[in-house]
Amino acid sequence: MKNGLLIVVSGPSGAGKGVTCKRLKELAPDIQVSVSCTTRDPRPGEVDGEAYFFLTEEAFNEKIEQDGFLEHAVYLNHQYGTPKDYVLGMLESGRDVLLEIEVQGALMVNAHYPEAILMFVLPPSLEVLEQRLKKRGTETDEQTRKRLEMAKKEIELLKSYDYVIKNDEIDKAARQMLAIIDAERCAVKRNLDLSKRLLQGENIL
Ligand code: 5GP
From the CB of residue 17, how many other CB atoms can be counted at a distance below 10 Å? Predict the structure, then answer.
């Protein structure tokens, strides 16, 4: 069976990648969204196993030693990582998997899986980004300031990505993501076996 697509979505905190990915999942329920592990504390309303698997530093480090992460990175003093077995298992069973991760992790994934599709979500402006971060109300002023500084550094890494989504409207952004995924599914480089199979008399649909 053909492997599924590995879709990586990054973008600064407040760019709206979380809600956009949620909308994408509604539009394309077959896409599997990987649940990451993190050592940061849950925000109000975040459920363990849904938003993240919330781990202690010890448990996270143990998982690193066991080679349990596809990638992992430190972001503003907390560790984040993508569970390896889940993602590889899904891809091998032909399912498309979406990772919503920051830039260091995305570049690590790309180094190991160059066939991954890398998308970067940008906010309409830095002002909008700041407003969104403040409106969230889940971070202190100092944390918001650090996230903004981090955002500027992340935006400079746009050039390492394959696609950019300018996120002014969630539905439009999610539909653009889906269009990119559909186009990638049709890419000849991912379908090189088709001519042979067709010529052998197979129905390729
Ligand atoms: P937050 O604390 O706002 O949930 O996430 C902070 C940053 O970590 C976001 O950019 C988010 O996409 C990223 N992130 C979430 N899970 C992972 C992961 O498994 N690996 C990496 N490298 N980044 C992650």
Answer: 25
